[in-house]
Specification:
This is Flagellar hook-length control protein-like C-terminal domain-containing protein. It comes from Alkalithermobacter paradoxus. InterPro entries: Flagellar_hook_control-like_C. The protein is of the alpha/beta class and 377 residues long. It has 14 helices and 10 strands. The protein folds into 3 domains: 2-9 and 266-376, no CATH class; 48-165, no CATH class; 170-258. The strands form 2 sheets. The chain has a 7-stranded mixed sheet with strand order 2-4-5-6-7-8-9. It has a 3-stranded mixed sheet with strand order 3-1-10. Helix 3 crosses helix 5 (109-119), helix 9 (170-182) packs antiparallel against helix 12 and helix 11 runs antiparallel to helix 12 (235-254). The longest helix has 28 residues, at 19-46.
Length: 377
Amino acid sequence: MKITSNTHYCFIPNSNISTEDTKALVEKHNSNEQIDLSLNKLINDLNVPNTKENEEIIKQMIKENITVNKENFKTIKENLSSFKALSKFSNEEIKLLNESIDDIENKEVRQVLREIYINKNGKNIENILSDLKSINLEEKDLIFLFKNNLKLNYQNIKTLDDFLKKGENLEKTLDKLYQIVSNSKETSKCEIKAIIKNIIKDLSYSKEINLNEIKNNLELLAKKINIKERIYSDKEELSQINDRLNFLNTLSNESMYFQIPFQYNGYKNLAEITLSSKKSKTSKNKKEISIFISLNTHNLGKVESLLGYCDNRLNITFSSENEKIINMFKKNESKLINNINSIGIKDININYKVKLKDRFNILEETKIDYANFDIRV
């Protein structure tokens, strides 16, 4: 599979204990000590109570390289507290409210709560109350949205929760859209269906995936839906689909995270790809390139691979939920090494890991620089 892009992103390290890993653990310990020292100072500077929640917000902001100042802290803290307050409303309390709040799904959460308390409006919060109660919102969730320039509103919080915790993905979203337009008599449906087909690549015939092309098609699809939304009978569902597409488009722009639905030998699969480039800690003036690929496959289940390249050295970690799959990878290791050698990379280190429950989490992303990629996996 060939992946081409003008963009990139980040990843989470493996768990095999080695000399390098031991050094990393020491660095992490020292880093945590520095964070604790910074934490106490920042709490004093911000003049906020020294609570566990405040500490966690500041700690996550530091880890994500977000400037810790009064304005940023206030934005995250107030929206987090407001969301928790809204989720505790009862139907009896909502009945006492007056008018509905316009565009309540897209208003910042703290603005919604302010409207309820000051003007006693918000009758339509009843429409989203069950979702509010079902979402387990954490500090890192809001910080992720904030870092990626996504508004801290109900719609983005719900979409993030759907993708990360409730199993929603681009493949399912496109399937729903395809069904809606297929059942419609609208003459322009062929155009939308053609864009969907361009996004879902069939790797049985072509091994190349162009991330920029997919990204451009998603943006085009979102624009088409926005224009045609009013003429379809499933307006509400189309609106939700459009919100999800725009959400993923923003992530690809800000964090270089991609969901790629594809077909292989007639079976549907989904790839999550993150790309990053950062300065190496071990080699001066060198960049470390990381590519993380998570595949939901028909025959092998979930398979993840992490590739790290720096100073002509390639580190690869394969992860699977099934030890038999890991053993299959090990049996084919020499063939893989020979193929990589053929493109000029000689220094290769391969690790394997059985990964039972945890999965790659886009909440752990960091800001990155831009680089060009032409990587064969």
